[in-house]
Design goal:
By secondary structure, this protein is of the alpha+beta class. The protein has one domain: q64v53_bacfr protein fold (Single Sheet), CATH 2.20.140. Helix content is about 15%, strand content about 40%.
Length: about 100
């Protein structure tokens, strides 16, 4: 009855999370970025970007997307931008987590 294209995932069934960290310079705490992609109650998607220095107050930004493909593209783009800045993936979670 329902094709794979119309099937909805249960709420937050497969959130994705990446934790990236940059090598600290002498005397500095390491900088980090955490990217989380999660589904909301209405079938939309949130990309949450948390960044900061370990031990300090983080900066958190949320972006909302209606389609999973668009949200996933934004997630991968954010990841790629951080990799270019010298961050390394320390932790990846989620069945579909891009690494």
């Amino acid at each position: 009855m329902h094709g794979a294209a119309t099937a909805r995932l249960p709420y937050n069934a497969r959130p994705m999370r990446l934790y990236l960290q940059q090598r600290p310079t002498a005397g500095e705490a390491p900088k980090y970025v955490q990217l989380t992609l999660e589904q909301d109650l209405f079938g939309g998607w949130f990309l949450v970007r948390e960044s900061g220095t370990t031990g300090a107050r983080p900066t958190v930004k949320r972006e909302q997307y209606l389609a999973r493909d668009t949200a996933l593209a934004a997630f991968e783009s954010a990841r790629d931008a951080q990799l270019k800045r010298g961050f390394q993936v320390m932790f990846a979670q989620g069945a579909d987590a891009p690494r």
